[in-house]
């Protein structure tokens, strides 16, 4: 009985520690910006941060320093905080992260969000060679030129909110792409910049048309055309809902562990009560047996005296 009770108590202690450990693990929030990560100078931008449904406070950090603090709002199943920047300037362009608090714990920081302010310098020109209409399998180069010297150029394909390609140069750089496929079709723009977060006006768009070469189906984009997409709102929602489902599952698992722990504690108490009852019963039986023996002894003694 004692060994069983000890094992139950150790198991309860283990489960309690497991629950306590799981409470410390808060999934990191998701951060994104609207209307985009590129904001023209003087235009507003909204930064959204989404944590678990239990989040009660959000903090936004800019370049590693606390920038804004906000309480969340419920949007269906989503728990979201919105931070508003009324006018984008070079002073508000940079890297943002957010965290949230649930009960007394703070989450890990979100992935970084790099906000860029545009329309600060002259307008570059963008051209494509050998031309805007090519056949899949050909090599293509975009040339971005800026009359006033800069030190960095960015090339973006519209419609994907991409993390842009970049090249270093003074007045002109080349962005080689190829062999191209139909996946490279689209509209491109380029920007000049003196740093990662302050860009020029965008160039005029250049539309690349790629016709299929049915004689070769093995073509694929090279590393020169690898774009790392930023999350758009739909992808953020999907990812956030997955994290919330995971958080809900964790919450359910913690509740189940608490129920199991409570059941084990109840079993342990019942074992203690049963052991105490058995001990009292045995003590009472011993006392009753001793009393009966004493009565019989007195009866025999009295009988001898009467004889």
UniProtKB/TrEMBL annotation:
Localization: Cell membrane
Domain spans labelled Immunoglobulin: 34-118, 129-211
GO cellular component: plasma membrane
GO BP terms, alphabetized: immune response-regulating signaling pathway
Highest taxon listed in the record's lineage: Eukaryota
One Pfam family here: Ig_2
InterPro entries documented for this protein: Ig-like_dom_sf (IPR036179), Ig-like_fold (IPR013783), Ig-like_Receptors_ImmuneReg (IPR050412), Ig_sub (IPR003599)
Transmembrane segments annotated in the record for this chain: 256-274
Keyword Cell membrane: yes
Keywords for this protein: Cell membrane, Disulfide bond, Glycoprotein, Immunoglobulin domain, Membrane, Receptor, Repeat, Signal, Transmembrane, Transmembrane helix
Family the UniProt entry places it in: Belongs to the natural cytotoxicity receptor (NCR) family.
Name listed for the protein in its UniProt record: Natural cytotoxicity triggering receptor 1
Species the sequence originates in: Mustela putorius furo
Upper taxonomic lineage: Eukaryota, Metazoa, Chordata, Craniata, Vertebrata
The gene coding this protein: LOC101670751
